[in-house]
Design a protein that fits this description.
The protein is α/β, with parallel strands linked by helices. It has one domain: 3-Layer(aba) Sandwich (Rossmann fold), CATH 3.40.50.1820. Helices cover 40% and strands 15% of the residues. It has 11 helices and 7 strands. The chain has a 7-stranded mixed β-sheet with strand order 1-2-4-3-5-6-7. The longest helix is centred in the first third of the chain and has 14 residues. It is globular.
């Protein structure tokens, strides 16, 4: 897989598919492979630039601090580094938090925006959940163990655990097969999650935006209509809805809690 230098760091990425460029930003602890369920649909229409954020996958893993704002600046430099002027941009969870800042600060880089299980500001509930992961990281042998024990229960429904244990074990094996994330980088990403605040950025987002969340997610409490920012200006000009729906159908049996494998937005 290719790497490119951005902000003095080696960034690893994959480029499957052909068509207009689509930049895919992963979630906490994950590398570019977290989009494996969506790629079969996306690659029919897009050249998918799926990256490993600094601190994850095979990209460099500097010491902290990390922040969603700094990540946004690094992601903003990526398209130009590979010869792409503008791209459709999609982010899941932490990736969605990052690309809010990206779209607000660098609108000329973003053709459309897709936010999957994203949040605009970390409240006390989210902080309490994420801080559990920090505690587990100090007690378990590897970050992969933290993901399986602490993050997966927030991603998948009880039905998946009980009724499809073979699929769950496949997902566990897939997660453990990915490049190991060092604890310092995982904790630095947790710091970025906890500190995230894009309240001031929302009103500056003026590109076609698609927002999705899973029907069984705790983040559905945030899904009431918004009268400001990106939600107010949501338009059907981003990733075409049929493409988004097809990508979601590829993983609908997982019935995720946290849209790390996004399902269609229901209004």
């Amino acid at each position: 897989m290719p790497t490119i230098e951005v902000d003095g760091l080696a960034i690893n990425y994959d480029v499957p598919g052909e068509g207009e460029p689509l930049l895919l930003i992963p979630y906490t602890s994950a590398d570019h492979a977290c989009y494996a369920f969506q790629l079969p649909a996306y690659t029919e229409h897009f050249s998918c630039n799926a990256i490993d954020l600094p601190g994850s996958g095979e990209s460099d893993k500097p010491a902290g601090p990390y922040s969603t704002e700094r990540y946004a600046e690094q992601v903003a430099a990526f398209p130009g580094a590979i010869g792409v002027e503008r791209a459709h941009v999609a982010g899941t969870s932490l990736g969605g938090a990052v690309v809010m800042h990206l779209a607000a600060r660098h609108p000329r880089r973003v053709r459309s925006l897709s936010l999957h299980s994203a949040w605009h500001v970390s409240d006390s509930y989210l902080k309490a959940v994420v801080e559990q992961w920090r505690t587990l990281a100090s007690a378990l042998p590897t970050v992969a163990d933290v993901v399986v024990a602490g993050i997966f229960p927030w991603c998948f429904t009880p039905e998946l655990y009980v009724e499809r244990p073979e699929l769950f074990e496949t997902l566990v094996g897939f997660g453990r097969s990915r490049p190991a994330q060092p604890v310092h980088a995982f904790v630095a990403q947790i710091d970025a999650d906890v500190a995230h605040d894009a309240t001031g950025a929302l009103g500056e987002i003026d590109v076609p935006t698609l927002i999705t969340f899973a029907r069984a997610t705790s983040s559905a409490r945030r899904a009431s209509p918004s009268r400001s920012g990106a939600a107010r200006r949501e338009r059907a000009g981003g990733l075409r809805p049929p493409v988004a729906r097809r990508a979601a159908r590829g993983s609908r049996d997982l019935q995720p809690r946290d849209a790390r494998f996004p399902t269609p937005c229901r209004r």
